[in-house]
From TrEMBL, chain A:
Membrane-spanning parts: 20-47, 74-91, 103-126, 138-160, 172-193, 205-226, 235-255, 267-293, 305-321, 349-370, 382-406, 426-448
Protein name: Cytochrome-c oxidase
GO cellular component, one term: membrane
Matches recorded under InterPro entries: Cyt_c_oxase-like_su1_dom, Cyt_c_oxase-like_su1_sf, Cyt_C_Oxase_1
Keywords from the UniProt entry: Electron transport, Membrane, Respiratory chain, Transmembrane, Transmembrane helix, Transport
Automatic annotation (TrEMBL), chain B:
Residue ranges of domain Cytochrome c in the record: 44-180, 217-307
Keywords recorded for this protein, A-Z: Electron transport, Heme, Iron, Membrane, Metal-binding, Transmembrane, Transmembrane helix, Transport
Protein name: Cbb3-type cytochrome c oxidase subunit II
Entry-linked SUPFAM superfamilies: Cytochrome c (SSF46626)
Annotated GO MF terms: electron transfer activity; heme binding; iron ion binding
PROSITE patterns in the cross-refs: CYTC (PS51007)
Transmembrane annotation, as ranges: 7-28
Amino acid sequence: MQATVTAQHSAVSAEDDRALAAVFSAYTVSATCWLLFATAVGLLLAFKFGAPDFWAAKYLTFGRLRPIHTNDTFYGWASIGLVGLAYYVAARSSGTKLYSIKLAWIGLALFNLAAVAGTIALELGYNWGDLEYREWPWPIRLVFLAALLVTGWNLIGTVARRTTEDIYLSNWYTVCGVLWTCVIAIVATLPWYQHGLGQVAISGFYMHNAVGMWFTPLALGVFYYAIPKILSRPIYSYALGVFAFWTNLLFYPLLGGHHFLFSPLPWWLQTTAIVFSVAMLVPVWGGSANYLLTMRGRYRDMTHSYPLMFIFVAVIGYLFGSTQGTVEAFRSMQAIWHLTNFTVGHSHLTMYGFVTFAVWGGIYALLPLATHKSPGRLGIALHFWMALVGSFIYVIALSIGGTIQGLDWLHQRPFIQSVTDMAPYWVWRGAGGLLMFLSHIVFAWNVWRMTSGQTGNAGSPILARTEGAAA
Amino acid sequence: MKKLLQIAGGALLVYIVIVMGIAVIPAIDLSKTPPGPGVKPLTALQAEGSAVYAANGCAYCHTQQVRPLAEDKVFGRPSAPGDFAYQTPELLGSERTGPDLSTIGSSKPSDVWQYIHLFDPRAVVPESVMPNFKFLFHVVTTVPPGETAVPVPAAFAPKQGEVIPTRQAKALVAYLLSLKQTPMPGYAMNGGMGGMTSAAPAAAPAPTAAASGGYSYDAAKGQSLFMANCSACHQATGEGIPGAFPPLKGNAAVDADNPTLHIHTVLQGAHGVTIGGVAYSSVMPPFADQLSDADIANIVNYERSSWGNHAKPATAADVAAVRAKGP
C-alpha cells in the first residue's frame, strides 16, 4: 500500500491542491472553534459541582449547558474535524482531486448551521426530552442529516474517480462511517414509531451507534492513513484491517442495550448487548495490534514526531477505552459502575483519549502537508503534555470517585453520602479539565500557525522526507 | 465503481438489516407496551411540568428507573415495562448524581418541601450540589390573592419580599408529585415508597440491647434511619423549617412520656396539623408500609432522646400495638 499513500499528484493541479488545502483548513479552524467553546462550557460545568449556585440563572443552569457541551464536542468539534480529515485523506489516497469543492463548503455550512441552531435551541430550553446526544429538536437534526448526505456524496464521488485499482482502507472506514451515520440519524430522528419503552430501546441504540459507527470509523480511517504516512512504511496487515472493518460492522451496532442494563428493557436485548460488547474485543484488539505492529521498532521516531505521539496515545486510548467498555458491560460490573461518574470517565477516555487525540494527530500530521505551514515545537509540546496529563487526571479521578460512589450505594448508605464522597474527585476532575482546556487554547494557536499565521519550527517529518528525497 | 458499490453498498445493507433487528423492530414492538395496572397518563399541568423537567435537563442527574438490585430498594420496587407507557420522551436517565425520582411523589409528598428545595436545595439538604432554580420563582413585595408564599428559611430567603412560584414551578412540582409507583402484586420489594429497609416488619434485624435500663435501642441505626427518612424536612438539627416543617426538638408529641401520638404520626403521616400554635400545611407521608416496627422504634427513640428531648423510650411492641389499631 506504500504506493497508495505517498506522492500521487499526477492527476491533480496546483490549483486543486490549494482548494483542498482551503477546505481542510476551514474544517479544522471551524472544528477548533467548537472545541474551544464546548470545552469552555465543560469547564464551567465541572466548576458547578463545587459551586452549584455559581451562574445558576436560566440560561446558565447545569441541565441546559450539559447537552450543549456533549452535542458541540460531538457534532461541532469531532464531526467537523474528522470530516475535514476524511476529505483530505480521500483525495490524497485516491490520487485525485475532491469531487466537489463546492459541496465541501456547503457541508461545512450545514454542519455549523446545525451546531449553532442546536446550541441556541438547547439554551432556550427547546430539546427533545433529555435523550442523550440527540437532544436537538428534529428539524435541526435534519440539517445535520443533510450535512452527512452532502459529505457522503462528495466522498463517494472522490473515491469513485480514484486513479488506483484498490480503494484504500481509510476510505472504507470514512465512506461507510458517513453512510451508516445517515441511517442512525434517520432512525434516531423519526419520532412516530418510538414511544415510552420503545424510545428507550432507540436511546440505547443511538447512544452507542453515534459513537461507534461514526467517530470510531472516521478516526480509524485517520489511523490507517496517517500512521503509514508518518512512518513511511505500509500498514502491518491490510487483511487484518479489512477483518476489523467487517467485525466492527457486525458487532458494534448490537451493543447499545448495555446502556440500559437492569432496566425494564427486554432481558434478551440486554444480554445480546453484553455478548456483543465482549465480541468487540475482536475488532478492537485486531485493529490496535495492526496499528501497534505498524509502529513496532519505530517508537524512537516519536521523540521527534509529535504527530506520531498524538496518534500513539489515540491508539492506546482506543485499546484501553474500548476494552474498559467491554468490562463495564458485564452485569456484575454494571451493578457497581452503572449510573455513577465512572461512566463519565469512560466517555472521556474514549471521546478524548481516543477520538480527540486521533483528530489532533491527523491534523498535525496532514495539515502541514496541505498548507506547507507548521506549528512551533513549543506549542505542539505544550498542547500534547497538558492534554495528556489533564486527561489522565480527569479519567483517573472519575474512575476512583465513581467506584466509591457505586460502593456507597451497594452498602446502602444514605444517598447523600455518595454525593459528599465525590467532592474531592470532582475537584481533581476540574483540575484535569482546566489543563485540558488550556491545551486547547494552545492547539488553537497551533492551528492558526498551520493555516494563516507565521509558520513555526516544528518541521513536518513527512515533508522533510519528501523534500529530502526530491533534493 | 463496482468495487466501491460492493463495499459501501454491502456495508450499508448489512447495517440496515442489523439496525432493523436490534433497534427499529423492537422499538415498534415496545412502543405498544400497555400501561401497568393503575398507571395513568399525565394531566395537562403535569405534562407541562414534565416538559420543564426535560428542558432544564433534570434527567442528567436524576434517573427514573429502579433496578432489581438490593441497593435500589430505597427508591421503590423494580421498574416495570408498564410504568413507562405514557412517558414520552423517556426520562430514564443515565446518571444518578442525585437520587432516583421514580417515587419522589410519595417519599416527598409535600409541595412546600419541593418548592423550598427547588428555590434553594441547600435550605433543606445542606450537602446538596444541585443548582438552585430561583429562576422558576418570583420575589414580590405583596403576595397576590390566590398565591401562597413559599416559607423559605430566613438564611436562604431574599432579604426583602416574598417568594412565590411561577407557573413553570407549579407545573414542575405537580409533575414531581405525580411520580409514584403503582402497586404491582408479586413485584413489590417494599411498599413502593422511599423506605430504607424491607417491608416485612418481622424481617428487621433485632435491635442490639443498649446498656441502660432493660430497654433496647440501636442509636446508630436510629440516627441513620432518621437521616435517610426524616431529616429532609425535620432537619438534622431537629429544628424543622419555621412555618414549613415542625420542629421535633421540644415538640410536645415527641417529648411526651406516652409515645402513642408520636408513633401514630410516623406510621400514618399527617397533614394540616397545628403544633406549638403554628399551623403547618405540608403533608407528611406515612411510613407504615415501608418501615418495620423495630425500625420505627429506633427512629422515634432517636428523636425522643436527641436535641435535648428526654422522653420515655418506646419499644417495637408499642409500635406494633399502635400499628394494629390502624389509621
